Amino acid sequence: DLPIPPASFELLVFSLRMQAEQALGLLRLSETEEKPEVNVPLARHVIDLLAVIEEKTRGNLSLEEKRLLENTLTELRFRVVQA
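^ thats the sequence. predicted structure below, dont judge the formating
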C-alpha cells in the first residue's frame, strides 16, 4: 500500500495533467500496452478544467503555483496541437 499524499494545489494540477497526458497517449498504463489510445476531446476537456481553475484562482496563487499552472496549460495545449 502506497501512502496517500496530502491534498494540495500542486497535486490537483499534477493529477489533471496526468489525465490529459494519458488521454493524449503519452502515458502507458502498463509495460505490456503496445500503443496507448488517444482521446483528444477528453484531453481538451481536462485542459479546459485547468483553464477554469486558472481563471477562478487568478490573484490568489503564489508565484510558484501560478507558474505551475501556466506552464502545465502551455505544454498540454502544445501537445494537443501536435496530436
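The first helix runs from residue 9 to 23.
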